[in-house]
Amino acid sequence: MTSSELDIGAVNDFVQGKPKRVEVNGRALVVVREQDEFYALHDTCPHQGASLSKGHVSGTTLYCKPGESIPYGSDGQILVCPWHGYEYNLRTGRSVFDPETIRVRSYPLRVEGDRVFVKLDPGSGKAKS
Question: Could you tell me the pLDDT band of residue 120, with boundaries at 50, 70 and 90?
Fold first, then answer.
């Protein structure tokens, strides 16, 4: 572990597909576990300041005919804002709708043993155990 990485909890503290708010050195992050991968984003939606940790994880909708079940792409990789439905890619923090201008800062995570560590410098928010 490098000195710029901080322990944010045990692997089992994070429930599959459920956003969790974690405060680290005065910064609020939302952490999501998807299988053996973990993602961390800044916990504030840039649209109007909602806490993204109160949102839900979903996917993007794909084409279907009327009356058919709605299929999802990128299932488990999209964090949806609880207020207005803005969608953010967990891997990049970029908006699904306007990825070049609307984004949330992502943070790199790393799993060591049964602990999850975050580096507060911005970057890719993915960690594998």
Answer: confident
pTM of the shown model = 0.84
pLDDT in tens, 82-102: 999 999 999 999 998 888 999
- Compute the distance between CA of residue 5 and CA of residue 114 in angstroms, rounded to an integer: 15
70 DSSP 8-state letter: P
Could you give the C-alpha distances from 38 to 9, 12, 70, in angstroms and in order?
A: 12, 12, 26
Give 59 or 106, the one with higher predicted confidence: 106
d(Cα 73, Cα 59) in Å, to the nearest integer? 6
What is the dihedral sign for C-alpha 11, 17, 22, 28? positive
Backbone angles phi, psi at 57, to 5 degrees: -100, 135
CA distance 93 to 55: 14
Domains in the chain (CATH in brackets) are: 5-128 (2.102.10.10)
